[in-house]
Design goal:
This protein is α+β, with helices and mostly antiparallel strands. Helices cover 21% and strands 29% of the residues. It has a six-stranded antiparallel sheet, covered by helices on one side. The model is unreliable at 1-35 (pLDDT under 50).
Length: 132
């Protein structure tokens, strides 16, 4: 990719923070809604957020990834959106605990990093840095 390391890292960190914030509603402000939900999937009891604009190689199919319904209204357990499922694939060079590729087919799969807080897992950040 043609982005500088500093701006890409800042962009990814900001995206993770915004995505995490978008998944929660603040019940103390009268049930106000957030603007949107994060592109969050779960696979093998881990949560993953998408990482865009990264070249990677899709490996073998691991299983099924699940995207919970978006609840951006602040009302607990009240959503009309169904849970969706798709395929999770291994990413060459990364442990599935750090990142997986998620999509209906390997060609459509996007890179998703384990959601561990505000920062990317160190091995994913290194992978991104080396992909440039």
């Amino acid at each position: 990719m043609n982005r500088t390391g500093r701006s890409a890292g800042a962009l990814l960190s900001a995206a993770l923070l915004m995505a995490a914030a978008a998944c929660t509603a603040d019940g103390d402000n009268g049930g106000g809604a957030s603007a949107s939900c994060a592109n969050l999937f779960t696979y093998d009891d881990h949560s993953y957020l998408d990482v865009q604009q990264v070249d990677f190689t899709v490996g073998r199919k691991l299983g099924v990834a699940t995207q919970p319904p978006c609840n951006d209204t602040g009302q607990s357990d009240k959503t009309d959106e169904p849970t969706t499922t798709t395929n999770a694939y291994k990413v060459a060079g990364l442990s599935p605990k750090a990142a997986v590729a998620i999509g209906d087919t390997p060609k459509e799969a996007l890179l998703f990093a384990a959601h561990t807080g505000a920062d990317l897992p160190p091995e994913v950040q290194k992978f991104i840095d080396e992909a440039r």
